[in-house]
């Protein structure tokens, strides 16, 4: 297996690298507490989207990774890798499972993200999907690494009621290597605004802010915040514009978001897919053709092919226009129907 590239340091305006917080040695003197039953599955804590980083010493900052959210369960009977939707993907990430066995702990549940890094050390969702064989693919990924950022269960103890700082301290003692398949998502000591600008300058997706005193609560409750350099959300594909010159005959994809109980048209995306992905899209979309548009549409219809709004596209975009359309959008891939396939909701 080719060794994944190392993550590269973020640089400030003075080109001095932003240093991760020094790790404290783990205290070997631990009290003997009764063992807690190990949860079969834990719904993840989700980050709430904000436009600017929060201020104050109570916030810890990390890089936002662009991949699949996973929890690695280390159990006496073996390793389980569980997705955000509760599916067992152990067989799809054999390298991560093998690395988990080497951590030297009897029981643990580690929260993190499976990613594939590009040549610059940045996580790339498209490369991850390719390594798994595309949407709903059946390949195993030996290229993916696991960026660990929380520890929910450890040595027979449920840690969810501990504050984040204490959970983080235990996680740092468990994951010591910086270049293995399982790596620590480093906490970076920096002003949130400064770190956010550095992340955007380096082409990263954004940053995550976490309340140091928060317990681990499932759902999107504001204990964790995400600040994105570029917006990225899921939109239903309601059709495509047929082209006689574009790859696979797809000029652009027509997209929709949810507004209450209905779907509304939010524009199109015509960049981001190559020859191979365009052919895969065309094959999937042509199986979903319908005669009537699933959304209200007032544009030119001559070359539009309407489809059932079954597929959800991950789309990057810079902003919204005044009339509610996506601005500077780019296609990233199809979301897996079982994992993170929510459609953007317009408030």
From TrEMBL:
GO molecular function: ATP binding; DNA ligase (ATP) activity
Top-level taxon: Bacteria
Enzyme class: ligase
EC number: 6.5.1.1
Coiled-coil segments on the chain, per record: none
Pfam family for this entry, one: DNA_ligase_A_C
Keywords of the record: Ligase
Biological process, per Gene Ontology: DNA recombination; DNA repair
UniProt cross-references to Gene3D superfamilies, sorted A to Z: 3.30.1490.70, DNA ligase/mRNA capping enzyme, Nucleic acid-binding proteins
UniProt catalytic activity: ATP + (deoxyribonucleotide)n-3'-hydroxyl + 5'-phospho-(deoxyribonucleotide)m = (deoxyribonucleotide)n+m + AMP + diphosphate
Spans annotated as Disordered: 1-40
All residue ranges annotated as the ATP-dependent DNA ligase family profile domain in the record: 146-275
Residue spans crossing the bilayer: none
InterPro entries xrefs: ATP-dep_DNA_ligase, DNA_ligase_ATP-dep_C, DNA_ligase_ATP-dep_cent, LigD_ligase_dom, NA-bd_OB-fold
Keyword presence, Protein transport: no
Family per similarity comment: Belongs to the ATP-dependent DNA ligase family.
Protein name in the entry: DNA ligase (ATP)
Species for this entry: Rhizobium mongolense
């Amino acid at each position: 297996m080719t060794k994944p590239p190392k993550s590269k340091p973020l640089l400030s305006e003075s080109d001095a690298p932003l240093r991760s917080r020094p790790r404290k040695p783990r205290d070997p003197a631990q009290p003997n507490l009764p063992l807690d039953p190990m949860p079969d599955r834990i719904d993840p804590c989700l980050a709430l989207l904000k436009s600017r980083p929060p201020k104050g010493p109570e916030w810890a900052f990390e890089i936002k990774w662009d991949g699949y959210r996973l929890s690695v369960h280390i159990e006496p009977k073996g390793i389980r890798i569980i997705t955000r939707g509760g599916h067992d993907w152990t067989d799809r990430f054999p390298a991560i499972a093998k690395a988990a066995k080497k951590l030297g702990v009897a029981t643990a549940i580690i929260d993190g993200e499976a990613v594939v890094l590009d040549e610059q050390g940045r996580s790339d969702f498209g490369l991850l999907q390719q390594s798994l064989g595309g949407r709903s693919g059946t390949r195993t990924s030996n290229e993916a690494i696991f960026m660990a950022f929380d520890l929910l269960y450890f040595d027979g103890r449920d840690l969810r009621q501990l504050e984040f700082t204490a959970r983080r301290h235990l996680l740092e003692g468990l994951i010591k290597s910086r270049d293995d398949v399982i790596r620590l998502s480093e906490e970076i000591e920096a002003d949130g605004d400064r770190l956010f600008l550095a992340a955007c300058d380096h082409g990263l997706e954004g940053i995550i802010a976490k309340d140091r005193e928060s317990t681990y609560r499932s759902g999107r409750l504001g204990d964790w915040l995400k600040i994105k350099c570029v917006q990225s959300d899921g939109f239903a594909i309601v059709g495509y514009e047929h082209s006689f010159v574009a790859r696979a005959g797809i000029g652009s994809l027509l997209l929709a978001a949810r507004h209450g109980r209905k779907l509304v048209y939010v524009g199109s995306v015509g960049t981001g897919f190559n020859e191979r992905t365009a052919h895969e899209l065309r094959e999937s979309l042509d199986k979903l053709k319908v005669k009537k548009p699933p959304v209200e549409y007032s544009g030119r219809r001559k070359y539009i092919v309407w489809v059932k709004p079954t597929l959800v596209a991950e789309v990057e975009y810079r902003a919204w226009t005044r009339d509610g359309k996506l601005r500077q959008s780019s296609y990233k891939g199809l979301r897996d129907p079982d994992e993170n396939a929510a459609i953007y909701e317009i408030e």
